């Protein structure tokens, strides 16, 4: 096994996404605790910071109560803080930073005070023209309080609002300027607005509970608050929820849709449905396809928790090789977990996962994970399985080799840290110490979702639906 793979012990894994949630109770009921539970269900999408902003639609126009901080949802909010967040309309956010550093100032939702009152905004995704837009705004006197791309969106909406009659029109005009990936929830004193970029990179759905409308990144958050799924927001669509119910503007729904295929492979929770396709079913399908592409004789199929488990079940269903559990995951390891230093004997992967020795001893194991990014996880756990007495370890990956950076909301390392950039599959197999290694093929990806659904697979192919930016998207404002 190649030791170099462990040099970057600090940086295993994929760095997540963001999650957005919004609710407007037309009957005037309090919404803070629903936002809290909605965010709790979306915690897997971002663990750096979180926040809630609420307002009372019957109260003074423009009064917003907000609280945000670094940390997990249950670390940041206490019953006392939630009790103070009174209001019947509100938005929430869980963040994994993609543009702008991970800091308290950059936590979302953003709340802006301007001449028309207040504006709250929660954003999932990443703009590719944020730096140039920000410069243009700064040269006309704008002052920014954060270094995130999301503030550029908020600023544009506020500016456009001065020249048009309604905040949803301002959102529409801002959408004509911003480029990239965004699922947005905007809160004005009397309206809750959801917007999805015309490519539809990121998910956003609408639900309803009694007389309250809910917007959320994933359907699992609707379930958590007892809301019924109504529909996905369409790519390019703006939905406005006001005292009369829901109004839709689909005039920007004219792009070739490029939903992020990695949402199905890794990001989203398996109990969510995104654009009509169950995430769980697509992972089962990925496992079945892997079994057809890369069969091997073995005694047991195991998944790397959590996101490898469903594909492992699919592989087992396709082959009739028993599905088992080889790893126990420590559920208390979050992104805020202090990773061991390189010269310490502990490793972050071993702290996260341990092997069930009695299950794997003397067995030929097929180990399924959803992806190999830097290779740290696979190398460690193949080694752990072998040390526990596994006779053979065949690694199967339920996605194609991850070779190219993402500019649209996934914070992944630059090409030189991606193990599949510059290494053949045989070299990777050797580096992770597996007896065999097989990936899904790009050509089979359409089978993970419904026929005819179009998607972005830029991280596997380098073909992006729009020209990627030349500059570092984290931005010069961070230097
Ligand atoms: O090759 P690497 O750089 O090690 O990254 C690949 C791993 O990262 C992800 O898991 P992650 O540990 O982020 O979280 P999970 O527990 O949600 O699967 C992914 O599921 C792979 O297991
Ligand atoms: N992961 C995301 O969706 C991040 C949203 C936004 N770009 C930020 O950095 O806060
Ligand atoms: Mg994993």
Note down, in words, how this protein is organized.
The protein has 479 residues and is α+β, with helices and mostly antiparallel strands. The protein folds into two domains: 19-259, Glutamine Phosphoribosylpyrophosphate, subunit 1, domain 1 (4-Layer Sandwich); 274-461, Rossmann fold (3-Layer(aba) Sandwich), CATH 3.40.50. 26% of the residues lie in helices and 24% in strands. The strands form six sheets. The protein has a seven-stranded antiparallel beta sheet. A six-stranded antiparallel beta sheet has the order 5-6-7-8-12-13, covered by helices on one side. α4 (130-139) packs across α5 (149-161). The chain is elongated and about 70 Å long. The model is unreliable at 1-10 (pLDDT under 50). Bound molecules: 1-O-pyrophosphono-5-O-phosphono-alpha-D-ribofuranose (PRP), glutamine and magnesium ion. Residues 17-18, 95-100, 108, 123-126, 148-150, 409 line the site of glutamine. It comes from Mobilisporobacter senegalensis. Pfam families: GATase_7. It is an enzyme of class 2 (transferase). Residues 18-244 form the Glutamine amidotransferase type-2 domain.
Topology:
Layout: E1 19-25, H1 32-41, E2 49-55, E3 64-70, H2 73-76, H3 79-84, E4 89-95, E5 110-114, E6 117-124, H4 130-139, H5 149-161, H6 167-175, E7 183-188, E8 191-196, E9 205-209, E10 212-216, H7 219-224, E11 228-232, E12 238-242, E13 245-249, E14 259-260, H8 261-267, E15 273-274, E16 277-278, H9 279-293, E17 300-303, H10 309-319, E18 323-324, E19 327-329, H11 348-352, E20 353-355, H12 357-360, E21 364-369, H13 376-387, E22 392-397, H14 425-432, E23 436-439, E24 455-456, H15 458-461
Parallel strand pairs: 14-24, 17-18, 17-21, 21-22, 22-23
Antiparallel strand pairs: 1-4, 1-10, 2-3, 2-4, 5-6, 6-7, 7-8, 8-12, 9-10, 9-11, 12-13, 15-16, 19-20
1-O-pyrophosphono-5-O-phosphono-alpha-D-ribofuranose binds next to helix 13.
Binding site for [4Fe-4S] cluster: 260, 406, 456, 459
EC number: 2.4.2.14
InterPro entries: GATase_2_dom (IPR017932), Ntn_hydrolases_N (IPR029055), PRTase-like (IPR029057), PRTase_dom (IPR000836), PurF (IPR005854), PurF_N (IPR035584)
